[in-house]
Specification:
With 349 residues, the protein is of the alpha/beta class. The chain has helices at 16-24, 36-49, 60-71, 85-88, 93-96, 114-120, 150-162, 174-181, 186-189, 215-227, 236-249, 253-268, 296-305, 328-348; strands spanning 4-5, 53-57, 77-80, 101-104, 107-108, 111-112, 131-137, 166-170, 194-198, 209-213, 274-275, 284-288, 308-309, 311-313, 317-321. It has 14 helices and 15 strands. A hairpin with a 3-residue loop joins strand 14 and strand 15. Helix 1 packs antiparallel against helix 11 and helix 12 packs parallel to helix 14. The longest helix has 21 residues, at 328-348. The two termini are 27 Å apart. The structure holds ligand TLP. Ligand TLP binds at residues 8, 10, 59-61, 85, 89, 137, 141, 170, 172, 198, 200, 209.
């Protein structure tokens, strides 16, 4: 049986055009600012995102850390959603590496309300850490790839500004957000100080993320990246794939969204599973499996036994992420195999 890997869009492999570009890219030592391919990618990325400057980083995680550490000093406070990737999935680097104090602002499945942000900013007082930075995430991973609508994004940015906060956008999947919202990506970057986006997710590069912001911010971020051990040498091999990604892989993300919707509709018809179809806005599908009586770990193991590699959102959810290696037929086949697993769980129960 062929194995279908739908754990994440991070599972995507480089395209032939990327491999070709990587093999032939002009290279130099990036730490000496001498890699022409890195410089080309950074200029392209800054222009595309409507920012002054950009910096290539090996991972989204490191790009976020570079942003946090460039905007704030140890002991400062960063306001963010406790369900955000920076808070939830980055090994506590916010505290242990950046030395920042998190202030969590409640959010309803990725949608924070501006008044909740305002209420979380405490008045300047010697007893409190200094509130310095606000972090947004779009698309919002843990809510199932939901898109923060542009109006809400703008209102949140305005609330942050009123309170003198710098704004960083974790835009690992910002192109998915812009496509789903049907707005130019620059509508989402206009009001923020920095944004990072990932080349290594739906855009299909083997690795790499880009941090964008004002020139002085990026100069500071270059120091931080070096301090973190992330200074690179002939990084043009990575950047070459990134250039292909920006040129060829952005518009096709709409196809992943369509496949995710198809999968969501098929899974929603399986008795024992619950899918909030309204939340499937981009390439992710979160499915509530609690009625099957299985733990998330057991459910994932059973999926594996029928050749499906999916992701877990314990205690109730499984995550599927459509990517360029999948077709409409893949989605139908996944639903068929999932149904076998659910039926057998319900029969035994
Ligand atoms: N997300 C990964 C896992 O870490 C959960 C995934 O499979 O979705 N910001 C956001 C919003 C992300 O979703 C991710 C990766 C990152 C940052 C970190 O990117 P990398 O993995 O390149 O460090």
């Amino acid at each position: 049986m062929d194995v279908i890997n739908i754990r994440s869009d991070t599972q995507t492999l480089p395209t032939d055009a990327m491999l070709q570009a990587m093999a032939t890219a002009p290279l130099g030592d990036d730490t000496y600012d001498e890699d022409p391919t890195v410089q080309k990618l950074e200029a392209m990325a800054a222009e595309r995102l409507g920012m002054e400057a950009a910096m290539l980083v090996i991972s989204g995680n490191m790009a976020n850390l570079c942003a946090l550490m460039s905007h704030a000093r140890p002991g400062d406070e960063v306001l963010l959603d406790p369900e955000s990737h920076i808070y939830f999935y980055e090994s506590g680097g916010l505290a242990s590496v950046a030395g920042l104090m998190p202030m969590s602002v409640p959010s309803e499945r990725g949608m924070m309300q501006p008044d909740d942000l305002r209420a979380a900013v405490r008045k300047r007082n010697i007893h409190h850490p200094t509130p310095r930075l606000f972090c947004l995430e779009n698309t919002h991973n843990r809510s199932g790839g939901r898109v923060v609508p542009l109006k809400l994004h703008q209102e949140l940015c305005a609330a942050a500004r009123e309170n003198g906060l710098a704004i960083h956008l974790d835009g690992a999947r910002i192109f998915n957000a812009a496509i789903a919202a049907d707005v130019p990506v620059t509508d989402y970057t206009r009001d923020v100080d920095s944004i990072m986006f990932c080349l290594s997710k739906g855009l299909s590069c083997p690795l790499g993320s880009v941090l964008c912001g004002r020139r002085d911010f990026i100069e500071q971020a270059q120091w931080v990246r070096k301090r973190l051990g992330g200074g690179m040498r002939q990084a043009g091999v990575i950047a070459a794939a990134g250039i292909v990604a920006l040129e060829q892989m952005v518009d096709r993300l709409a196809e992943d969204h369509e496949h995710a919707r198809l999968l969501a509709r098929a899974l929603a018809e399986i008795p024992g599973l619950n899918v909030d179809l309204g939340s499937v806005e981009t390439n992710m599908v979160n499915v509530d499996h609690s009625e099957t009586g299985l733990s998330t770990g057991d459910f994932l193991e059973r999926l594996k036994s029928v050749g499906i590699l999916a992701g877990g959102r314990p205690p109730r959810q499984i995550r599927f992420v459509a990517n360029r290696h999948h077709t409409r037929e893949t989605m139908r086949e996944i639903a068929r195999r999932v149904e076998i697993v659910v039926r057998s769980a319900l029969q035994r129960g």
